[in-house]
């Protein structure tokens, strides 16, 4: 999809103006936050990028994000797993032309198989921290997009039940949910404090049943109680935790 831009009051040559989407698909693997990147067949050797592409005339932005993610990585997502983020449209952000891209964040419990397709030569999971630190440079302004997506992910898990998106829809323990917060925020949370905050936050989780599965790792003891995502769209109070250098929020 593209628009033709004209300067107001001045006759100029029409400029193609493309609308695109880029997807930051995040998951937690081995207690590390990771995202999917691709190597485009048209890109320089070794240069990775976020999956994405141009929006077709007959589809919504969300539909385009779902399609592009599947075409380039083989990952299927539901509409409610995609969260719209910022728009990026600096004139020089893409040397191929004037592209305005809408970023989407997908929070996924697990990514089993990734299969490159469409114009992607390869697709893989990489640690988000490698991108945030600048140790891994992505194509165009995709590092900036990932930084914005990471900040959005933090806001989502603080203000909504989105942290449960990283957990199995069949059910999860509070320790599994706590691991999500610790992995994304980057610090450990006292288990008792976490359990108290979950109990005080209506709509974050719903109790499913008493422990019915063996604890992970083969350890002995009472199986964990199981929970599922709650029905709240916004959390009150938010799930805020005080980190090592954060003095502004109560623990």
Topology, pairings included?
Blueprint (H helix, E strand, L loop, with lengths): L1 E4 L9 E15 L2 E9 L11 E3 L6 H13 L8 E7 L9 E10 L12 E8 H5 L9 H18 L14 H12 L5 H10 L4 E5 L16 E4 L22
Parallel strand pairs: 2-6
Antiparallel strand pairs: 1-2, 2-3, 2-4, 3-7, 5-6, 8-9
Task: Characterise this structure.
With 251 residues, the chain is α+β, with helices and mostly antiparallel strands. It folds into two domains: 2-7 and 15-158, Nucleoside Triphosphate Pyrophosphohydrolase, CATH 3.90.79.10; 162-229, Winged helix-like DNA-binding domain superfamily/Winged helix DNA-binding domain (Arc Repressor Mutant, subunit A, Orthogonal Bundle). It is 23% helix and 26% strand. It is built from five helices and nine strands. It has helices at 61-73, 128-132, 142-159, 174-185, 191-200; strands at 2-5, 15-29, 32-40, 52-54, 82-88, 98-107, 120-127, 205-209, 226-229. The strands form two sheets. Strands 1, 2, 3, 4, 5, 6 and 7 form a seven-stranded mixed β-sheet that branches. It has a two-stranded antiparallel ribbon with strand order 8-9. A hairpin with a 2-residue loop joins strand 2 and strand 3 (32-40). The longest helix is centred in the middle third of the chain and has 18 residues, at 142-159. It starts with a strand and ends in a 22-residue tail after the last strand.
Q: What is the annotated CATH architecture of the largest domain? A: Alpha-Beta Complex
Q: Mind telling me the C-alpha Rg?
A: 20 Å
Largest sheet: 7 strands, mixed
- Proportion of helical residues: 10-25%
Element-by-element helix/strand order: EEEEHEEEHHHHEE
Q: How many strand units?
A: 9
Low-confidence stretches are: none
CATH superfamily placement of the largest domain: Nucleoside Triphosphate Pyrophosphohydrolase
CATH class of the largest domain: Alpha Beta
Structural class: alpha+beta
Overall 3D form: elongated
What percentage of the residues does DSSP assign to strands (E)? 25-35%
CATH topology of the largest domain: Nucleoside Triphosphate Pyrophosphohydrolase
């Amino acid at each position: 999809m593209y628009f033709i831009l004209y300067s107001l009051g001045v006759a100029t040559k029409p400029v193609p103006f493309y609308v695109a989407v880029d997807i930051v698909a995040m998951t937690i693997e081995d207690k590390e936050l990771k995202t999917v990147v691709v190597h485009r067949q048209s890109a320089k050797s070794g240069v990775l990028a976020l999956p994405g592409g141009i929006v077709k005339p007959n589809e919504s932005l969300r539909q385009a994000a779902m399609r592009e993610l599947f075409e380039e990585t083989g990952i299927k997502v539901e509409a409610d797993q995609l969260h719209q983020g910022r728009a990026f449209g600096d004139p020089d952000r893409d040397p191929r032309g004037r592209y305005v891209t809408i970023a989407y964040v997908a929070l996924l419990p697990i990514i089993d198989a990734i299969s490159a397709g469409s114009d992607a030569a390869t697709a893989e999971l990489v640690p988000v921290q490698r991108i945030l630190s600048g140790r891994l440079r992505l194509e165009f302004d995709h590092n900036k997009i990932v930084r914005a997506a990471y900040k959005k992910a933090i806001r989502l898990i603080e203000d909504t039940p989105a942290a449960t998106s990283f957990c199995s829809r069949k059910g999860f323990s509070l320790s599994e949910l706590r691991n999500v917060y610790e992995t994304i925020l980057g610090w450990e949370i006292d288990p008792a404090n976490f359990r108290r905050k979950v109990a005080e936050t209506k709509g974050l989780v719903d109790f499913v049943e008493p422990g019915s599965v063996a604890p992970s790792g083969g350890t002995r003891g009472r199986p964990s109680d199981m929970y599922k995502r709650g029905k709240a769209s916004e959390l009150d109070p938010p799930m805020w935790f005080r980190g090592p250098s954060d003095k502004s929020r109560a623990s």
